[in-house]
Amino acid sequence: MKPRTLYDKLWDDHVVKQREDGTALIYIDRQLLHEVTSPQAFEGLELAGRKPWRLDATLATPDHNVPTENQEDGVAGITDPVSRIQIETLDANCDKFGIVEFKMGDLRQGIVHVIGPEQGVTLPGTTVVCGDSHTATHGAFATLAHGIGTSEVEHVLATQCLIQRKMKNMRVEVNGEIPFGVTAKDIILAIIGKIGTAGGTGYAIEFAGSAIESLSMEGRMTVCNMAIEGGARSGLVAFDNTTLEYLKNRPYGPKEDQWEQAVSQWRELKTDEGAFFDNIVKLNAADIKPQVTWGTSPEMVVAVDAMIPSPEDETDPVKREGMERAYHYMDYKKGLAITDIKLDRVFIGSCTNSRIEDLRAAAEVAKGNQVASSIKQAMVVPGSGLVKKQAEKEGLDKVFLAAGFQWREPGCSMCLAMNADKLGDGEHCASTSNRNFEGRQGQGGRTHLVSPAMAAAAAIAGHFVDVRDFVRKQSA
Amino acid sequence: MEKFTSLNALVAPLDRANVDTDQVIPKQFLKSIKRTGFGPNLFDEWRYMDEGKPGEDCTHRPLNPDFILNNERYQGVEILLARQNFGCGSSREHAPWALLDYGFRCVIAPSYADIFFNNCFKNGILPVILNEKVVNQLFEETFATEGYTLDVDLASQTVKTLSGESFSFDVDEFRKHCLLNGLDDIGLTLDDADLIRSYEAKRKEKSPWLFDVIK
Ligand code: SF4
After folding, report:
1. What is the ipTM of this complex?
2. Which residue's CA is the closest to the ligand 1 atom numbered 2?
3. CB of A410 within 8 A of CB of A394?
4. What is the pLDDT of residues A14-45, one digit of tens each?
5. Chain B residues with CB inside 8 Å of A29's CB?
C-alpha cells in the first residue's frame, strides 16, 4: 500500500460513500454541541420531523454565554435575557431529544473544547465535529476534528455523517529543544506569523517534529486549537505515549477490557515513512521567542523584544493596507516597541489556554507579585469545572487572588465577550485567547494574544515584558 | 432552501481582504435562536456609527456614510464583490444568514475561508471564485459604472459582464445539483441510510468502545 499521512488514514477510515465529483459522505463519531450554533439545527430537525441518528455520539454543554460569576444560581441567575433564552433553549432541546448535557452547575461543565478531551469523548482515530471553528483543538489526539456550520450540525444530528471533500496535506515541522520561557502558544503564533492567516486554507495541517513531540497534551491542544487561525480547518498531531498517558481512566474512554485493543489500533495513527505532503513548512524551535500580536489579525505577530512593524516597510499592498487599518484601530504612534504598549486588562482563559497547565504557568509568574495598579482588571477563567477544582486543590486560586487577579467560574468569557466580561472602547488587553479581530473582546477593544505566562507577567508590570527576563530576575 | 439558478443583479464592492465573520455579523447578534432577521445587523460595526444591540430597531441608528452599503447607488444589491480570504474566522452560519437576509444571493471573490464557503451552499448563496486579475477588473468596473450589474448563471457556470465578457468558474457537481434544485442535503444523505448503517455496524465491531458510552 502507498504510504499515507495521518490525515489520509483518518479520512480513509471514515468514508461511507465516495462520490464521483470528489465529495464524500464521511462518518462522524462524535459531535459536541453548545448553545450558540445549535438552536437552529434543532429547530430544523423538528420542522422536518427528524430524530437524532445516534444519541451516544453527542455531548452538549453551554459555554459561550455563561456568566463567570454566581454560576451557582444556574440558568435563572443569568441577567441578560437573550443569553438566558439561548441556554434554556439548549437545555430544553437536549432534554427533549435525550442528549447528554453538562448543564450549568454541573462540575463537568466548561468550554466544549476543554471538556471533550477531559471526559475522553475525544479519542484517537475518531472524527469530531462541533459548530465552532476551534474544534481543530481535538486534532491533538490524532483525531480528525473540524468546525462546522449550523446546517452541518443539523446534518450530523440527522445522519451521523457529513458531506466533505478531502483536504490537502500540509506538514508543519518544529524541530529542536524549546527554549526557556517559550510555550506552545508562542510556537503556534510563530507558525501563523510565518504562514499567514490563509496559509493553511484547504489543508489539514499535521504538526510534527521533535519540539511538537515534546509538548504535553495541553500544549498540543493549544497548537491545534489555533490551526484555524492559520486557515486550516483541522490540525493534527500523531498518537504517542503522551497521548496514551493522558487518556488513561477518562470517564468516556475505553474501559480495561477494551483498552489494549484500542491502544493497538491507536498505534497506527501516525504518518507513514515517505508519505506525500502537498506543502511542508519548517521552523526551528531555537529561533522562537515569546510572541505578542500587535494588530487585528493573528498573523500580525512579533517577538516581545521587537518594535511594532511599520506599514511603510511592507511591500505587499494588501498586507500594507491591512497593517495601516490595524494601526488606525489600535491607535499607535510610530516607533513603538511591544513593551511600550500600555495595558488596561488581562484575560487568562479560553479554549486555547485555560487548562491546568496554563493556569500553573500563569500562577508560577504571579506568585508573590502584585497586579500593577494601572491594570483595571486581571481575570483568570478556568476552562471547566474540573480544571477549576484541580487548580483549587493545588492552591492556584489563592496565588491568583493574593496577587490581585480575579478567580472566575468556567466559560468562554472574555474570549468573545458574549457574556458580561468585555473590554471597553479603546482598551488594550493581554489575552491568552485566539482571536484579536476588531471588536472581538468588546466593541473598540484592542486585543494582544500571548501565552499565559506572558499575560501574567504583563499584568504585574502593567505593560508587556519579556517573561524570560521577568522569571530570571525573580529567581536571582 | 431557495434554489439558485441564475441572477442578473446589482453589484456592491467590499474592497478589503480577510473580512472575518465577526465583521459580517458581530457576536452580540448570535444570541438569536432563529435563522432570520440578521439582515439589519449585517456588517453592523462598519455600517452604523453607534454600537448595535440585539433586538433593537435599526431604522433610526446613525449610518456610517463611508460604508459602501450605505451608498445610495448600491441599494437593492444582490451580488457582493469581495477580496481574498472572505469569511475567515468563526464558523458561525449567522454570516451567510445575515448576507441572505440582507438580500445577497451571490458573493464573488478570489478566495474564501473553507467553513464560510461551505455554509453558503447550505443556504442558497452561490460563492463564486474568480481569479485575482478578474476580480480586480470587476472592482474597477463596479467603481467606475453606476448601476453596474453582473449576470451569474450556475448551470453554465459563468459570470457575464455588462460588456458581454464572460468568465467561467468551478463548482462541485453535487453542490451545484443541490443549489440548482433547492435540495435539502439531509434528505439526500438519508437516501444512503443503508450504507451508513452498514458502515456503523462494521465500526462497532472494530472499535466497540466508541458506542453506548455517552449516555
Ligand atoms: S473560548 Fe473562545 S474560541 Fe474557544 S470556543 Fe469559546 S468563544 Fe470560541
Report:
1. 0.93
2. A415
3. no
4. 999 999 888 999 999 999 999 999 999 999 89
5. 203, 210
